[in-house]
Amino acid sequence: MSAAAGAIDNQREGSFAALGNVFLTRLPAAPLPAPYVVGFAPDVASMLGFDASLASAPGFSEFFSGNTTRDWPSTALPYASVYSGHQFGVWAGQLGDGRALTLGEAEHNGRRFELQLKGGGRTPYSRMGDGRAVLRSSIREYLCSEAMHHLGIPTTRALCVIGSDQPVRREEIETAAVVTRVSPSFVRFGHFEHFYANDRVDALRSLADHVIDRFYPACRDADDPYLALLNEAVLSTADLIVQWQAVGFCHGVMNTDNMSILGLTIDYGPFGFMDGFDANHICNHSDSQGRYAYRMQPQIAYWNLFCLAQGLLPLFGERYGEAERSERAVQDAQRVLEGFKARFAPALEARMRAKLGLDTEREGDDQLANKLFEIMHANRADFTLTFRNLSKLSRHDANGDAPARDLFLDRAAFDAWATEYRARLSHETRDDAERAEAMNRVNPKYVLRNHLAENAIRRAKEKDFSEVERLAAVLRHPFDEQPEHEAYAGLPPDWASSLEVSCSS
Ligand code: AMP
Ligand code: MG
């Protein structure tokens, strides 16, 4: 355990912590009684250069519950950072890490990662919150961030979940847990908005310089490095949303404080992978207007980038004379923001071609994909299984149609689409087997369906954590067949339709 503790540094040059007190407050975590290990990801440990047997080392749960931080020297304490943001389309003012504490950075193989405890107790940014996270939501974050990573979708990672019997009040009484999240950076759009709103252009510049120096050094060579930074955020965010849409993932709370400057999926709350496809699906029970519905995610991402651009505005256009600077800075920002559409649409189309197993590009591919979504929506066909099972369809006859076809109540609608699909496949050179193999590398068999997470949570509440680990292991190989785990790929049971997830985590 001391190996991990010794490898974490939170004062090093070039780190977020080195930006100083305007950005953060140092404080120890609030003690958590009798902590125990609920989940542990050995591959994240290896990524950090920690031993894969770390979780059984003495003191592991004391350390990753934050309990040992009360003994740390005051200048090296963990820290909570300050940010602001737009929540549900409205300026919310100051927010900040209300229950997250960054322990510091670990460096391995030339890569630096920040380790952050989520649920470590109250901070100066907690407002009305208790600073805690419950076991249920911590398991969901742990499972989903690991599932996303293994799907190839950019995300923060999770090293472990530590539980405690300490009661936490939500809609009902639950128990506390702490997830150790891992990311190269936890900087959010809201960090930039914060310093813009407070008219701290100096701090805004330091923050932007930090992100450029650490993550986008090539921006320094651009005419306007800060505009180049915005461009990087635009591109990485567009790419991220393409990936979300392509697997039927709904984030649920795409507030600007939950958007990573690196284009990572961050802040897992009421997220969900869709079972039956509904373009209007709202995974967050508290989102009554459907602002963050599945089909809204691309335009919300664009809206959020607009807020980021606004926050960076004072830094743009330094190369212009004072007289024309502000006007040209706005024009530049608008031009860069337009890049979202130019990036998103073709990338989504390319992704859809890959999902349909189309190796070549032809006129009408887009309509073919959209028609499939239309009939999936009308039939509430299972998102994951529809794409996965399409790989079994033959380009010559209807013999292999059943696995996909059976997911549609309106069989005639599927048959009509399948006829078009087969006609399109006749222009491809790959045979069925090659196409199936390629499709199975982009269409996962296993995703974190709500009911799977719920099963693991129910068992964990009874102190049986084996299902958390079993499920995590299945989700580490989402594209493999794993015949022994067929049940994890099946349609949700009836009880799953009544599951609701809200912001309360
Ligand atoms: P979220 O929408 O969950 O990302 O959270 C929005 C803001 O509320 C962030 O500033 C969080 O740190 C804060 N927050 C959420 N839950 C809690 C809690 N239980 N205690 C303190 N702050 C919280
Ligand atoms: Mg958040």
UniProtKB/TrEMBL annotation:
Chemical reaction(s) catalysed: L-seryl-[protein] + UTP = O-(5'-uridylyl)-L-seryl-[protein] + diphosphate; L-tyrosyl-[protein] + ATP = O-(5'-adenylyl)-L-tyrosyl-[protein] + diphosphate; L-histidyl-[protein] + UTP = N(tele)-(5'-uridylyl)-L-histidyl-[protein] + diphosphate; L-threonyl-[protein] + ATP = 3-O-(5'-adenylyl)-L-threonyl-[protein] + diphosphate
InterPro entries reported for this sequence: SelO (IPR003846)
Cofactor: Mg(2+); Mn(2+)
A Pfam family assignment: SelO
GO MF entries: AMPylase activity; ATP binding; magnesium ion binding; manganese ion binding
Enzyme Commission number(s): 2.7.7.-, 2.7.7.108
Annotated binding of Mg(2+), by residue: 258, 267
HAMAP family reported for this sequence: SelO
Name the UniProt record assigns to this protein: Protein nucleotidyltransferase YdiU
Source organism of the structure: Paraburkholderia phymatum (strain DSM 17167 / CIP 108236 / LMG 21445 / STM815)
Gene name of the encoded protein: ydiU
